[in-house]
Write a structure and sequence with these properties.
Largest sheet: 8 strands, parallel
Order of helices and strands: HEEEEEEEEEEEEEE
Structural class: mainly beta
Number of domains: 1
Helix content: under 10%
Strand content: over 45%
């Protein structure tokens, strides 16, 4: 309580915990350049430079040194670095060091203080089952 310093979550500083590292199956490390479209069925981390579209069936992390020129489509995306392109995701987190130049379509978005976003944002409507009987009104009786 008093006198205790708040310990920062390692993943909030761009560092990844060991449990998160074991979940990442695809890595483009710092200093690497990749040109072309990339599809990944597993969690992916980009710390290098990618020119092309990224599609991920799971999570996608763009590290502080990561830079993407292309569109991103993923279930979850966490941006610490730079993205120049459009993003479509269920959940998007833009960290304090993150920059996005492009349009975003998401269900949920989290933006930290210091993050940059320049583009259009479209939030998807919550998915609820529409009951058809709600539109069935009783017939009016003629007298």
């Amino acid at each position: 309580m008093f006198g205790q310093k708040n310990k920062e979550n390692p993943s909030s500083t761009g560092m990844i915990t060991k449990s998160e590292q074991s979940q990442i199956k695809t890595l483009i490390s710092e200093g690497c350049r990749f040109e072309g479209n990339l599809f990944s069925p597993s969690n992916t981390r980009i710390d290098g430079y990618v020119t092309g579209n990224l599609t991920g069936e799971n999570g996608l992390v763009i590290g502080e040194k990561g830079s993407i020129v292309g569109d991103i489509s993923a279930i979850e995306a966490v941006i610490y670095g730079m993205v120049r392109g459009n993003i479509k995701a269920h959940k998007l987190e833009i960290k304090g060091t993150g920059k996005i130049l492009g349009d975003v379509v998401v269900d949920h978005i989290v933006m930290e203080y210091g993050s940059h976003f320049n583009g259009n944002l479209k939030m998807n409507e919550p998915r609820e089952e529409i009951k058809k009987d709600a539109f069935d009104l009783p017939e009016e009786k003629e007298e």
